[in-house]
Amino acid sequence: MASHVLEARGLSKAFGGLLAVAEVDLAVAEGEALGIAGPNGSGKSTLFNLLTKVPFAADSGTVLLDGRPLDSVPAHAIARLGVARTFQRESVFPSLSAIDNVLLAAEGSRKARGFAARLRLAERALDGAGFPATLHNALAGQLPVFLRKLVMIASALALEPRVLLLDEPASSLTPQEIERIRALIARLLDSGMTILLIEHVLPLLTAVSHRLIVMDQGAVIASGTPAEVIANPAVVEAYLGKKT
Ligand SMILES: Nc1ncnc2c1ncn2[C@@H]1O[C@H](COP(=O)(O)OP(=O)(O)OP(=O)(O)O)[C@@H](O)[C@H]1O
After folding, report:
1. Do 156 and 209 share a structural domain?
2. Closest Cα to atom 24, ligand 1: which residue?
3. Which residues form the ABC transporter domain (predicted)?
C-alpha cells in the first residue's frame, strides 16, 4: 500500500456566516486519482484553495505533504514542493503568448535555473499537455477555450508537480475535447503523478478516478469507488434535493 502523499485533517473555511468547507479530512495515496464531485457551491473549489493556499489558506485544520504539516509553509513554497493546481476558469494572461504564459509559471520551478532551462521546461510542459507545437507563440487570449485550458494545465505542469489539482478541466468542452483531457489525465497518471480532480462531467470523473468523494454544503458526505459512490442514496439526495 502506497503511503499518503497529500492529507488534510479538519480543514475548515468560513466566508462570513457561510461555512464553505467544514471539517474536511482526506488522504490521497501516491499515484492515486481522487475525484471530487458535489453540487454547485458545495465547497469543492474552496477545498482546492485550502490545500494549495492559492489564493487563501484554511481558517483551521492542517494539510500534510508526505506526512509533513504545511501550516507555516507559504503558497509559493507549497508549489515548489510539488503541489500545483489549475482553476475553474481558464486563468491565462491573454496578452502573453502561450509559451510566455508557461515560462512565467516555470519561474516557480525548483530546478530550472536560467532562461534556457526554463524555456526547455516550458516547451516540455506544453508538449506534455498536448498543446500544438505550431501555436507556442499565439496570444493566449486569442486561443479557443480548449487550448487556453491546455496552457493553464501546462503552466501547472511547468512546476513538475507530484500532485496536480485539476478544477473542472472539462467544463465548456466538446465530447472530443473531453476525451483528449481524459487521455491527458491517463498519461499523467501513467507517469506516476497523483491527481485530484473536480469535475461535473461525471463520465470523465468516473473514468479516471480510482476513488471518489462527494461534497455537500462543505462536508464530505460519501467516499468510495465511483460505482459505490454513485449508488449511495445520500449522494443521489444531495444532487436531486431532499424529499419533503
Ligand atoms: N471568495 C469567496 N467569498 C465569499 N464566498 C465564497 C468565496 N468563494 C466561495 N464562496 C462561497 O462558498 C461556497 C462554496 O463555493 P465553491 O466555489 O467552493 O463551491 P464549488 O463546489 O466549487 O461550486 P461549483 O461546482 O459551482 O464550482 C459557495 O456558497 C460560494 O458562494
Report:
1. no
2. 40
3. 6-242
